[in-house]
Design brief:
CATH superfamily: P-loop containing nucleotide triphosphate hydrolases
CATH class: Alpha Beta
CATH architecture: 3-Layer(aba) Sandwich
Radius of gyration: 15 Å
Strand order of the largest sheet: 1-4-5
Number of strands: 5
Number of helices: 7
Largest sheet: 3 strands, parallel
Distance between the termini: 17 Å
Structural class: mainly alpha
Number of domains: 1
Helix content: 40-55%
Strand content: 5-15%
Shape: globular
């Protein structure tokens, strides 16, 4: 599950988990919370990405499905997950959530306030600006600008249940 900040990756993932048995929810935002003095930046983000990949492989080896909920930084990171799925003989569904940047920013600001987070508006704008469409890597784009999270989850469930 790739996408820009504020597009609904985590919310949609939580809805999917209610419908998908034996599925683990992982991603670098979840891993960051395990690092006591996590600092946003190249080194700690790389650690979180690496740990996420190791956890993904282990869950697959143990026969569980996974949802990796994070913005993917580089094409080779996506390729590594494709290879992992192939090695484990499981399908790899790729969805990318997008929203109008102004709406995504508003969602991030509201979420940060509700969670008493420390993400600045400047940082949120930067994160949103880094969004890169990845249809060329097989991602199916879902625009959540005017779409309720439940409908986005329904679209995904319909797609994965037909294959």
């Amino acid at each position: 599950m790739d996408g820009m900040s504020g597009a609904g990756k985590t919310t949609v993932t939580k809805l999917l988990l209610d419908k998908l048995p034996r599925t683990a929810h992982i991603g670098m935002d979840r891993i960051k919370k395990f690092i006591s003095d996590f600092e946003r930046g190249t080194i700690d983000n790389a650690i979180a990405r690496e740990v996420t990949a190791v956890m993904a492989r282990k869950y697959l080896d143990l026969g569980l499905s996974i949802i990796v909920d994070q913005p993917f930084k580089a094409d080779d990171e996506v390729t590594a997950y494709n290879r992992m799925a192939l090695d484990c003989a499981v399908p790899c569904y790729k969805f990318q959530l997008y929203a109008d940047p102004d709406i995504a920013l508003q969602r991030v600001i509201e979420r940060t306030k509700a969670n008493h987070g420390d993400l600045t508006e400047e940082r949120a704008k930067r994160n949103i600006s880094l969004f890169k469409p990845r249809a060329d890597l097989g991602f199916e784009m879902i625009d959540t600008t005017d779409l309720k999270p439940e409908m986005a989850a329904k679209k995904i469930l319909e797609k994965i249940s037909h294959e």
